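Minutes, structural biology subgroup

Action item carried over from last meeting: produce the structure token record for Glutathione S-transferase 1-like (Drosophila lebanonensis). EB confirmed the sequence was re-checked against the source entry. Recorded below for completeness.
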Amino acid sequence: MTKVTLYGLDASPPVRAVLMTLKALDLNYDYVLVNILAGEHLAPHYIEKNPQHTVPTLEDNGHFLWDSHAIMPYLVDKYAKNGALYPKDAYQRAIVNQRLHFDSGMMFIGALRNIVRPLLFMNETEIPQSRINALDEVYGFVETFLAENDYVAGMELTIADFSFVSTLTSLETFLEIDASKYGKLTAWLERMKQLPYYDEANGSGVAQFSGLMRSKNFTIVP
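Output recorded by EB:
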């Protein structure tokens, strides 16, 4: 039976997105902890696998891939019994790809990492209000994506939902989603939390992430 290896850390949103994909596909996998806070991602043996020394990294039959937005499509294309999570139709797949790019660029790098990196690696404890405002803008875009859809890329669950939920639940550490303002987004989050693998693949990891961030005793400043 095929078994892949995932290298990562539960607190990492992109790692959690891949974990959700593995669970949804019911794939056999080994999970190797790489504690980036302890510098384990900088070990020579890890850099050989992933020169960018990021998490997640996937190992499959001697091949290595990194970046969740590359790993998830690969897993579905290679191992899924059908194309539901990453549609074969050109237009539907393009919508999923757009959402993955939105997560990578605007949500993860543009919103989340701008807050997290200074807290974790620069010993800063103050978050400018402008960075919090960026989260509200993200929530607004996602609400628009969900205006006529049950999921972020259409009426069916896709890997884009895994990316979005792992990042958005992490963003809530800094700005809770206002249900009265973002009703569609709130309802979608509840749908995602009903997935049988949600708690194991994302819920416990986001709790770790939130605890780590709150341990920095951050404050929001004008």
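Discussion: DSSP finds eight helices and six strands in the chain.
Next step: EB to file the record with the rest of the batch.
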